Amino acid sequence: MSDQAVMTDNKAEVVTKAPILITGAAQRLGRAAAIHFARQGYPVIISYRRERDDLAELRALGITTLQADFSDVAGIQAFIEQVKQHTNCLRAIIHNASCWLPDSKEPEQAAVGFQQMFQVHMMAPYLINHQCQPLLMASEGARDIVHMTDAVVRKGSKKHGAYVATKAGLESLTQSFAAMFAPDIKVNGIAPALIIFNDDDDEVYRTKALKKSALQIEPGEEVINLSLDYLLNNHYLTGVILPVEGGRSLI
Ligand SMILES: NC(=O)c1ccc[n+]([C@@H]2O[C@H](COP(=O)([O-])OP(=O)(O)OC[C@H]3O[C@@H](n4cnc5c(N)ncnc54)[C@H](OP(=O)(O)O)[C@@H]3O)[C@@H](O)[C@H]2O)c1
Fold first, then answer.
1. CA 46 – CA 66 distance, rounded (Å)
2. Which ligand 1 atom is the nearest neighbour of the CA of 167?
């Protein structure tokens, strides 16, 4: 891959790889992916919504952290402008930002929740992909977009119908962008089931959740990093949704 010019806060410097952009990467899977790619020598740019102390560790690794809130179109557009100010090229975009809200019977709350998840899971990837396509095209070699969806799209959900619907929309966008951007940019999805628990998941929930997959483990972030490496390094895959779900569909 040829050298690419990447602008940091005050100056332009030459680096050997085009950056990987990961949304919603201050914590958990996105954070692990950011560290993973930084350790591979990629410049990494992430978005975060809420400032927190442990962003310092990412910044110390040289990861560029951009504040962004995708709750409305103005917030998404402001993020795209920030990205363009920081780099003139991209190796990959990983759409990881996500919002997991339960359905509500209260109409106003239900509408706000659905709108919020539509913004984060569908509108942000849609606008970012279109407007950052030139940045991807400005890098040489492989170029990728990865959409983080969810294995539950295959089944639906009694309690998170709006979440699942908007993740299903993201899977649909995967195929449309794959067709639209071929042959220059590969566009694929990863559909995880349980990867890591939330800190506040109790033992009853954990036991029940583990039994939902054939392999019955909490695999940890590494399985997503392996999947990202696989998609980015495989030059004959596009429009594919890769299930990373421990045999959940077998149960
Ligand atoms: N973890 C799992 O086991 C699992 C299972 C199935 C699917 N997935 C999918 O894999 C991906 C990563 O999962 P995760 O559990 O690591 O995600 P997560 O902890 O929920 O983190 C997602 C990030 O998205 C950001 N975000 C939420 N709303 C936003 C908004 N309006 N604007 C901008 N950013 C926003 C949050 O930023 P702040 O924290 O700064 O607010 C959060 O850090 C997600 O797409 C998820 O749906 C994960």
1. 6
2. 47
